[in-house]
Input
Amino acid sequence: MQNHELDCCGLHCPMPIVRISQAMNGLVAGEVLKVQADDPAFRADVEAWVKMTGNEILSMEEGPVTTANLKRSA
Output
């Protein structure tokens, strides 16, 4: 299993989700994408996105830059 990273700092809705979707399409089931973003709507957007796609939030640490670890579903 390989981990991947994506920096979405400086991007605003909907671009972090667009970039996450593109990156996740290149992963296989079980791989993890670590995303960093500073958009205030990032947490809500990611939570809605995983509900729609069936992917999983493994962890989310909020601060000036929010870091989310997202697991690709089957």
About this structure: The first helix runs from residue 15 to 25. The helical segments are 15-25, 42-53. The radius of gyration is 11 Å.
